[in-house]
């Protein structure tokens, strides 16, 4: 890292992430570390220009009062303490600072340079990755999700064909999703991409399985097995690329921030398959990952995707999955996405999709009785996916989508709009 850094030490504040974001937003890199960091550890961090002791109410973590080691005050760079007004503080004391106070500390006191941007980040990471990998090889599971796509693009830029991407099509992808992974990475970016058509294998394993958790287990487990089989066919792979991002590392507070993952067994792979990890995005927040993807030239569609569950359409084809209903989910989802994009809703609504239940209802088609499946539309807004509210869709948009689904999707005679918030419902139906 060549960028200047402001270190935030977590003394029980709930605002660490907000503060780190604020500092990065003014162009200076910032990381969060636990209060019990040692002076040696702090000094080993590159380009530290200042330290903020970020205290919460009475500086308490998990019910215990916390303080940094006294030696930390000798770290040799400017320090600022942010505390609850009633908290005792041994050093200069500021109430929760406004943007100007942060700016003043970062630029005037610490003299940090505003050199945190994606161009510099990419240049740095390319250099670091080259140093770490040398002439060895990296394996990457490329799902087509934002994080794995950005990791792939970054590693490709750094090490070219020493990167081997494996894309497993489990048959539960959305319309054109697997095709677009191949188009972008193999055809356009010339990546070394192994495409595995595992559709029959997954659908075979899932046949007759109606329980949602059982379905998830089968999909996750089978994914690891397919990936493992592909990995065993390859030779001389030492590294596994991972789309770990900063929130995965800081999680709640910073208790895990120091956990440096190196040699460890990844995602359920067998004991004898040990890889070293390459995690070039582990310093980035989600929106920075997107900005990094754009910097690397990935298409907007890939970078600004809405969240999509790992088990894919498998949890939207309700109950035991059948090919005809899976096709109905895929086609209706594609229509919904197309119409949302036309109406400008794709940038406004957090998550939207269709689900197809495993029961039929009576209808009429061409003057005759029909007995077909319904399609359920879901469109929700949320901040953290823990609670969610329903998007109040324009009636005309809903009717247009309904008309298209009824005309274009085989085996469907009704369209329903799910009005339920979370709670009591969840976002997905399974
Ligand atoms: P729920 O349905 O629990 O969903 O309200 C919250 C968010 O999580 C996504 N989701 C999943 N993501 N694997 C995933 O990677 C899963 O098994 C899974 N289940 C739900 C869901 O799409 C929503 O964004």
Concise summary:
By secondary structure, the chain is of the alpha/beta class.
Description:
With 430 residues, the protein is an alpha/beta fold. It is built from 13 helices and 17 strands. The protein has helices spanning 16-25, 39-44, 99-109, 118-133, 146-159, 177-188, 199-206, 212-233, 246-250, 286-295, 300-303, 323-342, 395-408; strands at residues 5-11, 29-34, 48-55, 60-61, 64-65, 79-82, 93-94, 137-141, 163-169, 192-197, 237-241, 276-278, 351-355, 361-365, 368-381, 389-390, 412-417. It has a 5-stranded parallel beta sheet, covered by helices on one side. Helix 4 packs across helix 10 and helix 12 runs antiparallel to helix 13 (395-408). It starts with a strand and ends in a 13-residue tail after the last strand. Bound molecules: xanthosine-5'-monophosphate. Residues 216, 307, 309-311, 351, 385, 422, 426-428 line the site of xanthosine-5'-monophosphate (XMP).
């Amino acid at each position: 890292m060549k960028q200047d850094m402001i270190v935030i030490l977590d003394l029980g504040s709930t605002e660490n992430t907000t503060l780190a974001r604020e500092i990065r937003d003014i162009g200076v890199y910032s990381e969060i570390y636990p209060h019990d960091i040692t002076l040696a550890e702090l000094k080993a961090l590159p380009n530290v220009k200042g330290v903020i002791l970020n205290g919460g109410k009475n500086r308490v973590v998990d019910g215990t009062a916390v303080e940094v080691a006294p030696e930390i005050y000798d770290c040799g760079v400017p320090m600022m303490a942010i505390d609850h007004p009633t908290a005792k503080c041994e050093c200069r004391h500021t109430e929760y600072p406004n943007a100007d106070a942060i700016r003043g500390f970062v630029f005037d006191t610490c003299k940090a340079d505003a050199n945190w941007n994606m161009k510099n980040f990419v240049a740095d990471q390319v250099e670091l990755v080259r140093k770490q990998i040398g002439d060895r090889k990296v394996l990457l599971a490329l799902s087509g999700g934002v994080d794995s796509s950005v990791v792939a693009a970054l590693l490709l830029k750094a090490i070219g064909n020493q990167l081997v991407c494996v894309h497993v099509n489990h048959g539960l992808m959305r319309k054109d999703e697997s095709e677009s992974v191949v188009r972008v990475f193999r055809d356009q970016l010339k990546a070394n991409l192994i495409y595995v058509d595992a559709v029959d294998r997954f659908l075979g394993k899932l046949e007759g399985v109606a329980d949602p958790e059982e379905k998830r287990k089968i999909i996750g487990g089978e994914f690891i097995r397919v990936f493992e089989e592909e990995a065993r066919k390859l030779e001389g792979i030492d590294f596994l690329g991972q789309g770990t991002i900063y929130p995965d590392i800081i999680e709640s507070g910073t208790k895990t921030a120091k956990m440096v993952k190196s040699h460890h067994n990844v995602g359920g792979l067998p004991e004898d398959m040990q890889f070293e990890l390459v995690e070039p995005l582990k310093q980035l927040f989600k929106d920075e990952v997107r900005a990094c993807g754009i910097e690397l030239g990935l298409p907007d569609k890939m970078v600004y995707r809405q969240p999509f569950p790992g088990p894919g359409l498998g949890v939207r084809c309700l109950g035991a999955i059948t090919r005809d209903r899976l096709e109905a989910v895929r086609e209706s989802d594609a229509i919904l996405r197309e119409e949302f994009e036309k109406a400008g809703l794709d940038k406004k609504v957090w998550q939207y999709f269709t689900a197809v239940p495993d029961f039929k209802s009576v209808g009429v088609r061409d003057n005759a009785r029909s007995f077909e499946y319904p399609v359920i539309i879901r469109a929700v807004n949320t901040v953290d996916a823990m609670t969610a509210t329903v998007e109040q869709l324009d009636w005309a948009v809903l009717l247009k989508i309904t008309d298209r689904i009824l005309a274009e999707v085989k085996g469907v005679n009704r369209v329903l709009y799910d009005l339920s918030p979370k709670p009591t419902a969840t976002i997905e139906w399974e």
